[in-house]
Write a structure and sequence with these properties.
single chain, alpha/beta, Arc Repressor Mutant, subunit A, 2 domains, four-stranded mixed beta sheet, 11 strands
């Protein structure tokens, strides 16, 4: 069965990207409790379990690890209103959820159960108090398991957004959706989704009616996708970004070795030698290399914008460009002072 979303020209112009620390927190909690289906996250899962083994997280568990596993209440992961929301702002939005929405979505999550657990009943009897308990647990889980890795996760999400935004600009909507997920297909204003992964149960056709679509890359929805399609939320399609399988790879090689892998041993040596402006002969003497070899390396480094040459008399002195300094600062932080570069340019 397919769920069909009808996107008008207005919907496509209002389609936007964002990602959500709160969404990742909720999805990450589910992944941590289901490692067999999320093997690519095992390194993170092991660390997360160790960091939280002494905590229960009853309120998160009541909404994420439920008998109706295909549905997670939308109020737990409200669509962000900005492209780069802060976690604390999303928690504030969660706490401001209309109590009737809380009751309705919790009942839907547990609709097949004749008797509700006490923690679930709390969302129905006293939604505000339950939301406050939920927010506290989410903040704790975020701080212990995801905040330390957020820079790395965010970089993966941002990279995917930039790629898809470029595809949209160059190839239109078809290029935007073409490799988003094997279970997602777009053709002439119609976006078809595998219905088994759609949280909305009402019919097969939905007209977005000018609301646009929020595309939200998420590290923890792999290998499927998730949707938010019910009012009052903006329609959301959360999908797996490119590069998510590389998130938890081993640490990179030592900085010097990484620089050699990037530039080659000879060029990295030459680049590192230019702490102060040097001539070709001085670099060759310092490194014990031939002048012709050094000259070739310097030529390539100059063409790539990593070094600059400045003539003084009969000799040309080479120094790191601002780009070269930035590169070395990336691989060898704190070894260079970019403020020194203007002084080198006057040599």
């Amino acid at each position: 069965m397919k769920k069909r979303l009808h996107l008008s020209t207005l919907d496509l112009t209002r389609t936007r990207f964002a990602f959500s620390p709160l969404f990742e927190t909720a999805m990450g909690f589910g992944v941590m409790h289901d490692p067999s289906r999320h093997a690519i996250h095992l390194p993170w899962i092991c660390k997360a379990r160790e960091a939280t083994e002494h905590l229960k997280f009853e309120f998160i568990h009541a909404l994420v690890r439920t008998p109706k596993a295909s549905y997670v209440p939308d109020f737990l992961t409200p669509p962000p209103s900005t492209p780069l929301p802060e976690f604390t702002d999303e928690i504030r939005a969660l706490l401001a959820t209309d109590h009737e929405i809380v009751r309705r979505e919790v009942k839907r999550t547990w609709e097949d159960q004749t008797e509700l657990p006490k923690v679930v009943q709390a969302f129905i009897d006293d939604p505000q108090s339950a939301l406050e308990q939920l927010a506290h647990e989410l903040q704790t889980f975020w701080a212990l398991t995801l905040e330390p890795h957020w820079t790395k996760i965010r970089a993966t999400l941002e990279s995917d957004v930039l790629t898809r935004a470029r595809n949209l600009a160059l190839g239109g909507a078809k290029a935007l959706f073409q490799d988003l997920n094997p279970l997602v297909r777009y053709q002439d204003g119609l976006l078809e989704l595998d219905k088994s992964f759609c949280q909305n149960d009402d019919g097969t056709d939905i007209d977005l009616e000018g609301r646009g679509l929020l595309l939200m890359p998420s590290a923890f929805v792999f290998p499927k996708f998730m949707t938010i399609l019910d009012p009052p939320w903006q329609p959301v399609l959360a999908y797996t970004p490119r590069g998510v399988a590389n998130l938890w790879m081993n640490e990179p090689p030592p900085a010097n070795q990484a620089l050699e892998m990037l530039l080659g041993a000879g060029r990295s040596e030459v680049l590192l030698s230019l702490e102060t402006p040097l001539s070709t002969l001085e670099v060759a003497t310092r490194l014990g290399l031939s002048s012709s070899g050094v000259s070739e390396h310097l030529g390539v480094l100059r063409q790539t914008g990593l070094v600059e040459g400045h003539r003084r008399g009969r000799s040309v002195y080479y120094s790191l460009s601002r780009t070269g300094c930035a590169l070395l600062d990336l691989f060898l932080p704190s070894t260079l002072d970019l403020e020194l570069v203007p002084e080198l340019e006057g040599v």
